[in-house]
Amino acid sequence: MTINNNPKKRRILIVDDNKQIHLDFKKILIIGEEIGTDLDKLEEVLLGEAKKLKHEKFIVDCALQGEEGLKMVKESLKKNEPYAVAFIDVRMPPGWDGIETISRIWKVYPDLQIVICTAYSDYSWEEIVEKFGYTDKLFVLKKPFDNIEVRQLAYALSEKWELTRIANLKMSELEKNVEERTKKLRESEEKYRTMIDYSNDMIWVLDEKGNFLYINKKSEEVSGYKKEVGVGKSFVPIILDEDLKKVENIFKETMKGKPHHYEVRILDSKKKILTLSVNTAPMYKDGKVIGTVSFGRDITKQKQVEETLIATNKKLKMLAQTITSMREYVSITDMDDKIIFVNQSFLDKYGYKEDEIIGKPTSILRPPYKIKGLGKKIQSKTLKGGWKGELINRKKDGTEFQIELSTSILKDDAGKAIALIGIAVDIAERKKAEEELKKRTEQLIFSQKELEKLYTESEESRKSLLSILEDVTETEKALRASEGRFRDIAINTGDWIWETDKKGCYIYCSPVVKQVLGYEPDKVLGKYFYDFFHPDDRKKSKKGAFEVFKKKEPLKNFINRNVHKDGHTVILETNGIPMLDDKGNLLGYRGVDRDITERVRMDEALRESLQQSELFLDLMSHDLTNINQMTLSSLELMMRDKKLPDGAQRYSKLAADQIHRSAKLISNVKKLTTLTKEELHLEKVDIKPVLESVISRLGKDFPQRDIKVNFKPKKGKWFVCADELLDDIFYNILHNAIKFDRHEKVIVDIKVSSDKDLWRIEFRDRGPGIPDDKKETVFLRARWEGRSIPGSGLGLSLVKAIVERYKGRVWVEDVVKGNIEEGSNFIVLIPKY
Amino acid sequence: MTILIVDDEPVLHELLKDIFELYGHEVVGNAYDGVEALRIFRTLVLSYKKPDVIIMDHRMPKKDGVETSAEMLEIDHSIKILFVSADESARQRALEIGAVDFIKKPFEISEILSAIEKLTEEIKKADQIEKVLGG
Fold this sequence. Notes:
heterodimer, A: alpha+beta, Rossmann fold, Beta-Lactamase, five-stranded antiparallel β-sheet, 23 helices, elongated, disordered N terminus, B: alpha/beta, 5 helices, 5 strands, globular
């Protein structure tokens, strides 16, 4: 047998009991016509030279018996080199006949094309049909057969076999593919179903009405509702009422194609509230939304944790705020003794910035010379429950101070120590207070002893006095009457009358003290005067009083702050006289205290309000001046515009004049305030140059007026005690004179003469004069209730104020007495320097 | 003349600019408080554009005129500072620290112009002396 790997070569099986027939078939099918009948060549072919032939189409195998044929078919199938066509003889004694062989072969290989070769009809076609049914794979070839017929059959049938085989192959591939895909699909479906069913997320599907189409196991598990109960029902009943509207809206939106993520609270089968985090998406079929699919997760616990966390955070924040705002110095250190937190008080006290102290060991807070390992000691004590003690700490600048430190331990949940907390207080203050207390106690003990001594002394003197008293009953009576009178006065006056011994201890006290300091008189007796002093002033006032005591001088208008029984401050004005014995030794003081709290308070309020009004005046006058400045400059610029019509020019000028007037008013008001406010520093000033300077400026001040000032000073200097305001006296008088003079030519005569210790300066004008009843009021300062001085720029008021400041006088007379039309004469007297 | 105006009233800046320009002077800077004035002055000095005159108000935000002037005179002692203020109490101190004059507000245009004119003459004279000495 030959094996051929060439797929184009078809294999043909010959089953015949006659070997000659085998050769015949080989001749016909392998060698073809070219070979002819040359037996030698045929032999060659049969012996294996056939490979050399170019036209070889078939591989021919032969079997002598049906059984052998079947075996070869099986063999060929095993090798995957199946036969295409088999030529099978009908009679093949002693084995199976052709029909038997065919039926057996077809059982193992139904695709084989078979040609039955028969010399005579052993079987009729009908019998064959009966045996195999109608088949297109079986042909009958009558012997003796024609070569061409054999070859045609071989070609045709092998071709048919090939086509069938290809078709079968495709079919089986197709079947295989379909089978595989179905399998895969089934697997996939299975996988997804399992995935969905056993998904860790809740998954459910709703139809377009909101009824459950599907619920997975997790949903059942979480909600407690079984699939059988839930499917087909609406989602509405399980949603918490508060969330229902929201969820219904989301469902509607999702049905319009918009996916959503939301949180919802539902009631589970046991009516417990669960919070779910849900992703919902629309479910499409043929482009239409037919329902929704949702994935949910039970976040109830997470929510609870979140809420707890928020609450914890809030608590922590509060705690942090508390620590931050604590007045004590709080520090937290880790287990390596490194500072990890300090509060604001700590930073303020120690003088560090936060980044300078965090991460540093606590030893930085202690002076270097102190015990080494103290930090370790405190740490180990703290770990055993806490440490409390006093120690010296050190600020950044090196200053040392004493603190009381309490430490405690901070543990984590597992109970492991993670940090140490230290809370410190500055005990310097406390120490000071303690020392003070100690001192006071000592003093008290001392005073007590003194008192005892005094008591003994007074007892003795009382005894001796008693003996004398017996003799002086009459005197005593008189004294008693006198004492009674005094007592009456003391009770009825609003002032507090008192008497002290030489140490300042009250030995008499009028009942008014109750009104003044709130104490009953008997509570004051035995106390020292300085006991009631305001603690802030006690030291100073006590010292001041004892200095007077020492000199045995009277106390005069001694102002002192005291504390009323109810705690408020009482300001007292003390007056007192020393009481001396025959030898001039101080026995004590007797005096009166007046409550001037209200007066002082009023004074302060007045001063404050004055200061405020001065401030307002200052601000206002400054700003007004600036406003005047800008208006004036604008007007001046306008007036410089030659194109401006006359009327506009004139009005601008008018406005500018008013600005000047306003400026002068402001200036005068300021000066008047200054005059009343402060002590002026007066110095030696010569009147003449000041007067000349004022006169020289008049032309500029009144550019439109024709002014003639007659002033012919004699030689010499006229010194007065004045300051720069001297100018204002002359300026205002002259301006006044010119302003009110309606003559075309203004004439003013100035005359300076000596009048004993004074310089007399006279200004005579030709103005309208001042009626007698106005001669005094022109100098009066404007008052709110009677702003009666027309057109007053306060000029003359200022003149009077300044002159009086210089201890001088100013008044006005008629130039011709009784005829005011002749003009006025302003006379100024200023003391000579 | 080149002029730097220091005053916290913007309207006054506008008016002074009109006045000065009308008479051929040039406003080279406007400052509205003392700090700004110093900044502008430094910049001008550094860029060799020192103004001939500084019109200085006294009462201003951030730094008053007297302080500002003192610092300016430290930078350049030859700078001519002309005080223009409503606050007469500043007159003495202004003149003490070296201001050339003090004009009280409200002033008239002629006052400030004549003060500027006076300064122009002084500067001219100083230039001439410098030339004579230098030449």
